[in-house]
Amino acid sequence: MKNKIKVYRAMRNMTQEELAGQLRVTRRTINSIERDKYNPSIEVAFRIARLFNVPVEEMFSLDEDE
Questions:
Q1: Distance from C-alpha of 27 to C-alpha of 36, rounded to nearest angstrom
Q2: pTM, entire model
Q3: Could you please report the per-residue DSSP string of 3-56?
Q4: For residues 1-27, b (16+ Cβ closer than 10 Å) or e, as one string?
Q5: Which residues are registered as beta bridge partners of 3?
Q6: Would you give the DSSP letter of residue 63?
Q7: What are 38-58's pLDDT values in tens digits?
Q8: What is the pLDDT of residues 7-33, one digit of tens each?
Q9: Most exposed: 8, 14, 38, 57, by fewest CB within 10 Å?
């Protein structure tokens, strides 16, 4: 699954640590999600989308090769 977390985080000049704190996850989790090494739970995905005020479908998309 692809995501745009890094893009939206950069638009707000937000570090991975700051985002992790707001979402109540670790910085390592954010790093893994951004690098497409880990897919977040549905709850975390919705929290990310809500935080950036975008639909979850805007933040996440399925990789066409999957």
A1: 14
A2: 0.89
A3: E-HHHHHHHTT--HHHHHHHHTS-HHHHHHHHTTS-PPPHHHHHHHHHHTTS-H
A4: eebbbeebbeeeebebeebbeebebee
A5: 60
A6: -
A7: 999 999 999 999 999 999 999
A8: 999 999 999 999 999 999 999 999 999
A9: 57
